[in-house]
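Weekly modeling sync, notes
Attendees: S.R. (lead), two postdocs, one rotation student

Agenda item 3: backlog of single-chain predictions. S.R. asked that every request posted to the team notebook include the full sequence so nobody has to chase files. The rotation student volunteered to paste the first one in as an example of the format we agreed on. Action items at the bottom.

Example entry:
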Amino acid sequence: MRFVIVTGMSGGGKATAMKMLEDAGFYCADNMPVPLIEKFVELLAMPENGIDKVALGLDVRADQSLDDVSNVLTKLRESKYNEQYHFEILFLEASNQVLLKRYKETRRMHPLSADGDLMSGINSERQRLESIKSLADYVIDTSNLLTRELKAELDRIFINNLNYNSLMVNVMSFGFKYGIPQDADLVFDVRFLPNPFYIDDLKQKTGLDKEVQDYVMSYDEAHKFLDKLEDMIRFLIPNYVNEGKYQLVIAIGCTGGQHRSVTLAGELYKRLKDGGDYGLTLRHRDTK
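Predicted structure, as returned to the notebook:
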């Protein structure tokens, strides 16, 4: 039996992940009091219950010790039930800025911000969840993920049973005139290439159009740049994984974020797509 504990930051996407796992055939139970978890496992261990996939959602609560949760999870992995179950922990993460934005959009109260100080509640929760996060088999940072992209990552892990190193690689195009993305880890400037903006037939198009792609990729410099960039990224990814990094944002910029950066970000995405056991997304920040 596969037994997945789903937890993480409030607003990180736990409820969405639970719905996706339920759709995938998991028996889902949410917000169970910690003292009942072991009893729940005992009941599931009874013969002929017909359940072979379970997802248990755990939330941070002001009246609940997270140390107790960590202790229970460790105890389960060391118990006799570990032979019968495949205990796994999925931790859903997001940056403080994204969590703030999500809470403001939904107008919900954070479970640890009774005094109304949202950031204080987020910081407190992050600190309290550190012990559980350290036990997690999978950490998914949903800061830059669309719902369908989160589903794709969950399918990779729990449906297709592919290897997963908890690193989400986000390739992003942007325009320098609008500012460098604040969450970028690596920034590359492709303004050394000729600008399609000055070609009348291409000016109103973007790097999503084949005509622009063909123009940008007609230059040897574009191919050499991609070769060197891909080589460096493939060198960095396993080292980032070893260091426990969960998200890598690769930002490729040109003047307006319409032509060159969009084309090269798309080409890099294609090159990295089938190359490893990491998550991969593509985003064009400034295309119109």
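Discussion: group reviewed the output briefly. Residues 168-284 form one domain.
Action items: rotation student to repeat for the remaining queue; S.R. to check formatting next week.
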